[in-house]
Design brief:
This protein has 299 residues and is mainly alpha-helical. It folds into two domains: 204 residues, Alpha-lytic protease prodomain-like, CATH 1.20.1510; 76 residues, Cation efflux protein, cytoplasmic domain (Alpha-Beta Plaits, 2-Layer Sandwich), CATH 3.30.70.1350. The chain has eight helices and three strands, in the order H-H-H-H-H-H-H-E-E-H-E. The chain has a three-stranded mixed sheet. Helix 8 links the parallel strand 2 and strand 3. The longest helix is centred in the first third of the chain and has 30 residues. The two termini are 35 Å apart.
Length: 299
């Protein structure tokens, strides 16, 4: 198992442990403290447990070597895990919104003051976890790990909204008991927005959308830097989890022997993989160079 995948799995395992503890704490505090927002927060945290498990499983699967059944590898399992996390966030947002509306129209007691202390601790822990997991996701370029990080941030947002709502209901007194439920309803909208934010790039990767232009430029430059390459064209790059697959046409001396053309294609593959560490596979089509009438990187 390579180091980026190992780092991603460790971050998911840490999130799984923290979320399990926090879910129990928030659920008990919410029931004991008469806080619908805190109970809704616990529900959202339970979705965090599932999401961390999904990310963990997705990363482990994506680390498998290619085989006869999956000749291009299992990299898309990582993007699929990110998509599932996005859907879980949308589902959690819908569940929190429904419960918040139910609590708003149902008279209930004012939340207990001690629930504010619980929420402050939750916000600090989840925001810290968000920053650390996001750093890992950026370092290993993992959509699933970044999605897991934003799930932690969503939990922090829900807890912060609950803190504001409960504070208002305690401060204002009778008649303001539903303030924390309105806060939960507002937080559900923020969580839904984060779900869409996570889901969109995951679906794009699953549909083989081309990566950032900077990656394409580095790959093109690496291929053109190989001695003997006259031109490249039809450069296609698709992402598979943390890895990318490259396909391109390389034009060279038409009088070159088949053996030399094969050696040149190997040099191009090596140059690309050395320049862009995320490249897992390179497919090179060799063609005769036919002059300067076409663009060096035409599609």
């Amino acid at each position: 198992m390579n180091n980026p995948v190992r780092l991603g799995i460790r971050s998911a395992q840490a999130g799984l442990l923290v979320n399990t503890i926090l879910t129990g704490v928030k659920l008990v505090a919410g029931i004991a403290g008469n806080s619908g927002a805190l109970i809704a927060d616990a529900v959202e945290s339970s979705a965090d447990i599932i999401s961390s498990g999904v990310v963990w499983s997705g990363l482990r699967l994506s680390a498998r070597e290619a085989d006869d059944a999956y000749p291009f590898g299992y990299g898309k399992a990582e993007s699929l895990a990110a998509a599932v996390v996005g859907l879980l966030l949308l589902g959690a947002a819908a569940g929190i919104a429904i419960e918040a509306v139910r609590q708003i129209v149902t008279p209930h007691l004012t939340p207990a003051p001690f629930t504010l202390v619980v929420l402050v601790l939750v916000v600090v822990v989840k925001e810290t976890l968000f920053r650390r997991v996001r750093a890992v996701g950026s370092a290993v370029d993992s959509a699933a790990v970044r999605a897991d990080a934003w799930h932690h941030r969503s939990d922090a947002i829900t807890s912060a909204a609950a803190f504001v709502g409960i504070s208002i209901s305690i401060w204002k007194g009778p008649g303001w008991e539903a303030a924390d439920d309105w806060a939960a309803l507002l937080a559900s909208g923020i969580i839904a927005a984060n779900g869409v934010r996570i889901l969109r790039p995951a679906v794009q990767d699953l549909m083989d959308r081309s990566p950032d232009a900077a990656i394409l430029e580095r790959i093109a430059a690496a291929a053109l830097a190989v001695p003997g390459v006259q031109r490249i064209e039809k450069l296609k790059v698709r992402r598979a989890g943390m890895d990318v697959h490259v396909e391109l046409h390389v034009q060279a001396d038409p009088l070159m022997s088949l053996h030399d053309a094969h050696e040149l294609s190997g040099a191009v593959k090596g140059g690309i993989r050395a320049a862009e560490k995320s490249v897992l596979g390179v497919l090179v089509h060799m063609e005769p160079y036919e002059g300067d009438e076409a663009s060096a990187t035409s599609g």
